[in-house]
UniProtKB/TrEMBL annotation:
It comes from the Bacteria. This is Transcriptional regulator. The lineage of its organism: Bacteria, Pseudomonadati, Pseudomonadota, Alphaproteobacteria, Caulobacterales. It comes from Brevundimonas nasdae. Residues 17-61 are annotated as: Disordered. Residues 17-31 have a biased composition (Basic and acidic residues).
Length: 61
């Protein structure tokens, strides 16, 4: 018979910690370290923002 990877108490501790993080956020999120400054107008960077590639070469006739 296979032995479980984690014991029951370790699993419960991890679940409690995950629930607390989901409810209150991480330490960095609580401190505001990752919050944008007031008045910041964000811009989502997408692939369209990348430098345009050169035109494909045409075959000579």
């Amino acid at each position: 018979m296979n032995k479980p990877l984690f014991d029951h108490e370790t699993t419960l501790k991890a679940l409690r910690r995950a629930a607390e993080t989901a409810k209150h956020g991480t330490r960095e999120e609580q401190s505001g370290k990752f919050l944008p400054p007031p008045g910041w107008k964000g811009h989502l960077v997408t692939a369209a923002d990348a430098a345009p590639k050169h035109e494909p070469r045409r075959k000579r006739a």
